[in-house]
Amino acid sequence: MKRLKVGICQIKVVEDKEKNIENAEKMIREAVRNGSQLIILPEMFNCPYENKYFPLFAENYPGKTTNALSNLAKTLGVYIIGGSIPEKDKDIIYNTSYIFDKKGNMIGKHRKVHLFDVDVEGGIKFKESDSLGYGEKVTVVDTEYCKIGVAICYDMRFPELMRLMALEGAEIIVVPAAFNMTTGPAHWDILLRARALDNQVYFIAASPSRNMEAAYHAYGHSSIVNPWGEIISKADENECIIYGEIDFEKIKKVRKELPLLKHRRTDLYELYKK
Ligand SMILES: NC(=O)CCC(=O)C(=O)O
């Protein structure tokens, strides 16, 4: 039976890019020693999640961070979904996830499509569009195991994007994310479980750990949810690696027993990609 072992590195992000890369490398190596074949990092894993840092930490592709991830993927013979980093392209900075195969080839990249511009009374206020540009693509990559959809954090709130990935054949959706202490406790679990259920996929969300010295306090709680909506692995707020196994028979079984994707009334409504 085909299975895939996944490791999520819930990294503590600090104000030093070198240290963040070193720490990611250490944790990836540990995840691989413990059997992971696919390793996932959090949103902005090499840079504190604050507008003022994005231009300072941004790099072109290929750059220091992506070279390190590519080398690790090749040396260790694993897939890496490299969370996200601030990517500089000409004069624009994007919140970008790079995906590497076992040979270290970059097999896809996702630029965050929905920017986190919110103002919750008494809670979180953030305006990513002050410093970042919008991604324009839906990202589904092909691996030897299955197709994997990749989106970033706030993107997960938009069910149409997730559904497009499922319709393109994704059996796993991976979302590097960094929710906060307003929306995390309120919405994190519900969103992850809903997206897994809607699309009958394994839904994996990777957060940084909570760093109380940083201005932005990440919620943590990286999780893996199966296609039946059950949380099969979950972190607390601290730095750690969590593990889980993708059971492809489970995806088939759930999709056969409850054929949601087949039962869509495409004669009544339609979802299409521009
Ligand atoms: N980094 C983000 O996109 C944060 C998204 C978030 O916290 C939310 O509630 O959505």
From TrEMBL:
Coiled coil: none annotated. One of its GO terms (biological process) is glutamine metabolic process. InterPro entries: C-N_Hydrolase (IPR003010), C-N_Hydrolase_sf (IPR036526), Nit1/2_C-N_Hydrolase (IPR045254), UPF0012_CS (IPR001110). Keywords: Hydrolase. The keyword Hydrolase applies. Pfam families: CN_hydrolase. GO terms for molecular function: omega-amidase activity. Residues 4-248 form the CN hydrolase domain. Belongs to the carbon-nitrogen hydrolase superfamily. NIT1/NIT2 family. This is Carbon-nitrogen hydrolase family protein.
